[in-house]
Amino acid sequence: MMILADKIVMLRKKNGWSQEELAEKMNVSRQSVSKWESGNSIPDLNKILLLGQIFDVSTDFLLKDELEAEPEMYNQEESRNQQGEYVKRVSLEEVRKYLSRVTDYIKMIRLGVAMCILSPIALMVLDDGARAGVISLPENAAGGIGICVLLLLVSGAVALFIMGSMKMEEFEYLEREIIELEYGVAGILTEEKREKELRSRMYIVIGVILCILSPVFLIIADSMNASEMTETLMTALMFGMVSGAVVLFITAAMTQGAYDRLMQAGDYTKKKKRENKKAEKVQKIYWPSVTTVYLLCSFISGRWDISWIIWPLAAVGSSVVTAVINWNEK
To answer: Can you tell me where the transmembrane regions are (predicted)?
Structure first.
């Protein structure tokens, strides 16, 4: 049996390096290397990956105590469990790559959703501004420009959604297939997830507060009999606050979801994966239909200030549809 600390000592000496030389290659202090080798601390995820690259060994070898050499069997990407299902092995390198890709994906989704929520603002401000004489544009021209801005923002958001989905296609198996993390990876992920949970809770709290406070300025303007243009600006401010809240919700939910996928927890347990295969077919039709209904209702009614309520209702409806499908399967 060789623990990580012993392997670091062995590999360092095998390469003829001192603690100072290894510390320099790792961009850490000699004291950090000393603590790793004595077992008083454990390198974080990035440092373990770097150790594997420097020593030219797999992270599985570094983390699995009973491995004193690297048998070829651990290079197998798939095996079968007792139920005869294919189980895909996921290495620490693959986990790190996935989390890095998720970070970029979250940024794209946040921006795209914010663009969708904020897209009607130009139309509302230009249209009401032209009618009030605040903006020196004919009403038709102002409305046309506003619609063009709206469509540009929505099309840009759709492009971001598509590009983001394409970036994540490589990791779709995490949502559908049964996986097995290499030895030691689950412990590292548990620690990382615990560190991020506090931040995610803070994002949710701030987001809820923003949602609650978002109509306050519009209510104040209405109670003071403010001009129509002022109310429009307050509506735009409300959209901005809602957008900020949704961005925070997305960050918290998608970060949590990324770790749940890797650890097969929450909505991605083995049982849920089997159930979701049926629900996915319905969801592919459900959300495009919701988008169509949202745009039709908004354009026909012109009430962009209230049509956004379709989205939270659709989210609830999505959960109901999934629950009904799974119940019927049982």
So the answer is: 108-126, 141-163, 202-221, 233-254, 285-302, 308-327
pLDDT tens digits, 227-284: 888 888 999 999 999 999 999 999 999 999 999 999 988 878 887 777 766 667 677 7
Q: Is 68 helix (H, G, I), strand (E, B) or coil?
A: coil
Where helices occur in 214-308 by DSSP H, the ranges are 216-223, 228-263, 270-301, 304-307
pTM above 0.70, yes or no: no
Q: How buried is residue 321: exposed, middle or buried, by Cβ count under 10 Å (0-12/13-18/19+)?
A: middle
User: In 56-119, where does DSSP find H-type helix?
Assistant: 59-63, 92-118
Give me the residue label for tokens 């004595």. Answer: 38
The partner residues of 80 in beta bridges, in order of sequence, read: 86
Question: Measured between alpha carbons, how far is 67 from 248 in angstroms, rounded to an integer?
Answer: 43
Q: Mind listing the domains of the chain with CATH numbers?
A: 4-75 (1.10.260.40), 86-266 (no CATH), 269-330 (no CATH)
- Block residue for tokens 């097995």: 180
Q: Give the chain's radius of gyration (CA, Å).
A: 26
pLDDT digits (tens, 9 = 90+) for 287-317: 888 888 888 988 888 887 788 788 888 888 8
